Amino acid sequence: MTSPRRRFQTFDDPSHRKGPERIAALRAAMREAGVDGFVVPRADEHQSEYVPANAERLAWLTGFTGSAGAAVVLTDKAALVVDGRYTLQAPEQVDAGIVTIVPLAEKSLDTWIGENLGVGEVLGYDPWLHTADGVARLERAATKAGGSSKAVANLVDAVWAGRPPQPAGRVVLQPIEHAGETAQAKLARIREKLTAAKADALVISDPHNLAWAFNLRGSDVTHTPLALGYAIVPREDRPSLFLSSRDLAPEAQADLGTLADLAPRRAFEDALTALAGKPSKIRLDIATAGAALKETITSAGGTADMGPDPITGMKAIKNAAEIDGSRAAHRRDGLAVTRFLAWLQRKAHGGVGEIQAVEALEDFRAEGGLLREVSFPTISGSGPNGAIVHYRVTTATDRRVEPGELFLIDSGAQYADGTTDITRTVAVGTPTEEMRDRFTRVLQGHIAIARAVFPKGTTGAQIDAFARRPLWEAGLEFDHGTGHGVGAFLSVHEGPQRIAKTGTTALESGMILSNEPGYYRAGTYGIRIENLILVEERAIAGGERQMLGFETLTLAPLDRHLIVADLLSPAETEWIDAYHARVRETLGPDLDPDTRAWLEAATQPIGS
Predict the structure, then answer these.
(1) Is-contact 83 252, C-beta < 8 A?
(2) pLDDT given at position 14
(3) Which residues form the Creatinase N-terminal domain (predicted)?
(4) β-strand partners of 264
(5) Which of 27, 165, 464, 482 is the most exposed place for a label (fewest CB within 10 A)?
């Protein structure tokens, strides 16, 4: 008898609603360190979204498990600042009698500090967990309050009994058939950027960029194949690679050894100090480099050149092999999701639990082969849980889908050849007319992005409103971005490209993004429709500008029961029918007869 497959997700919530003891312990450590406040961001030293267990300080302290947020603990009060994705989740996890929950839309972290830090008080922070810009904002906020700020060793670590160790997972190579470009060629391009910037060296502080530049993948972080560490890439000399893990696969050891000097993570600061002391002008990534790195360089007599890591922009534009891999991954993923949706329809009327749905979808993905991980914890929300934008089901919150409810499932996979992210909202039983109206408006916004054609140089912010207009016309809105960048067997959330009010990076051919407008009625239901899209060149007869558009990569049916045909324009109806025909023609031949028959019915033209 074979042993059950290891699952990539768990459903416990050990950080849920922490009591006052941990806050009290932190305050005791603050007194010993001579500070009156301490900032606890949801971050590691690389400013990553998904962090290793030993960096989950915010969850340990407050109970909040979201992927973004920050707490400030003062001697007599504490606050947790979260954005619109977590305004419903945070009150469910955090004891508001101990920590005040502050929506970011109402007040920023800096503003709260400026209003609450006392005159003459000292605000402490860990310089590894804040960028130089972040530290400058903290300093300004403390000064505004009449106080000051101070870099200290992490005070949460000082009181966290049983803190997990630093991860040191296995490191492997990303095969050239998936990477599409050798690491030698990538490093040559990076050096060209350094020459143009007149910098002597680059510190790679973002593990995603480290993985891309050296064609390596690791296992130090859940859901994203990262190897934690740093690299120093001189403009002329041999690079140095500092990895937390020494568990390198033999082929990785040999290949990386030809590219760079390999050293343990603990040797990084000394190497950086020696380089800066020459002296040198060293580029630090303004988005991910901890303020401690800037201090190390300047203290040694070097110049910290704060700016974007050039790798970030290179990585965002996928090459032909990465695009082909993404298409293959989405076809494989579409088969799994379609099998799941057919299974859900058969099971839902008898009652399906949220955890049961997560496990079923993961099993369908595993059966397709090449699955390495899920790309993030699956959001499986029935009824009111679907209204929590980043809901994470636990054994305590698991509920069954009831007739007359909507079920939202947002999930993704890490395959050896690509990363996926898809959301589908389905009706169980008969949906209300309001549900159908809201779903159709969300779908109209989704179609507006999918069909968009725009001149080269257009940013995500310029087209974000396309997805919102149908909701705005009904006095409705959603409080998250419309789309984020996606990596190639890397992070499911990748910058700098995004479709959002903050999306200031121009979209370029080869970038992959999500298209995911939504609507959420608190306490009742949530709706989101998400496909991944590829930016591509678009020729227009008689056009005068170089134009771009999108290819939809994701393949899985939409719930036709939720579509109000009378609200659709002819062009919108045509898009839905063409998309469903493509889904049916692409996936149908590889499905079993029963699932193929279900797909045939699910993808019939609108109005038929």
Answers:
(1) no
(2) 53
(3) 22-145
(4) 243
(5) 165
- For the chain, what percentages of helix, strand and coil (3-state, to nearest 5) are there? 40, 20, 40
pLDDT in tens, 56-84: 999 999 999 888 899 999 999 999 999 87
- Rounding to the nearest 10 degrees, give the CA dihedral for residues 203, 176, 319, 374: -80
Peptide bond into 384 cis (omega under 30): no
* Nearest C-alpha neighbor of 340 from the set 528, 562, 587: 587
HSE (CB half, 13 Å, CA atoms) of 256? 28
pLDDT tens digits, 182-205: 999 999 999 999 999 999 999 999
Residue pair 233/239 in contact (Cβ under 8 Å)? The answer is: yes
pLDDT for 5 beyond 70: no
Which domains are seen in the chain, by residue range? 20-159 (3.40.350.10), 172-314 (3.40.350.10), 320-597 (3.90.230.10)
**What is the side-by-side order of every strand in the sheet holding 413-415?**
371-374, 413-415, 418-419
| Nearest partner of 189 among 321, 309, 302, judged by Cα | 309
CA–CA distance, 567 with 443 (Å, rounded to integer): 11
3-state secondary structure at position 239? coil
pLDDT tens-digit readout, 437-486: 999 999 999 999 999 999 999 999 999 999 999 999 999 999 999 999 99
| pLDDT category of residue 489 using cuts at 50, 70 and 90 | very high
Q: How far apart are CA 342 and CA 359, in angstroms?
A: 15
Map tokens 């050798």 to a residue: 182
CB 411 within 8 A of CB 422: yes
Cα distances (Å, whole numbers) of residue 281 to 143, 195, 284:
30, 11, 10
Question: DSSP character for 496?
Answer: E
b/e code 369-403 from CB counts within 10 Å (16+ = b):
ebbbbbbbbbbbbbbbbbbbbbbbbbeebbebbee
In tens, the pLDDT along 292-313 reads 999 999 999 999 999 999 999 9
568-572 long-range contacts (CB < 8 A, ≥24 apart) are 568/440, 568/444, 568/606, 571/451, 572/443, 572/444, 572/447
Distance from C-alpha of 51 to C-alpha of 57, rounded to nearest angstrom = 10
Structure tokens of 474? 């009904």
Residue (of 217, 181, 439) closest to 318 by Cα position? 181
Q: What is the H or E stretch that residue 273 is in?
A: helix 268-276
Bridge partners, 37 (sequence order) = 74, 123
**Is 0.90 surpassed by the pTM of this model?**
yes
Strands (DSSP E) contained in 300-417 are: 303-307, 371-374, 379-382, 405-411, 413-415
Are 89 and 390 within 8 A, CB to CB? yes
CB 150 within 8 A of CB 124: yes
Q: How far apart are CA 598 and CA 342, in angstroms?
A: 6
Exposed (0-12), middle (13-18) or buried (19+): which is 19, by Cβ within 10 Å?
A: exposed
Strands 379-382 and 303-307, how do they pair? unpaired
Please report which helix (H) or strand (E) contains residue 418, including its range: strand 418-419
Instruction: Check if the beta carbon of residue 545 is closer than 8 Å to that of residue 469.
Output: no
The sign of the CA dihedral 479, 208, 193, 128 is positive
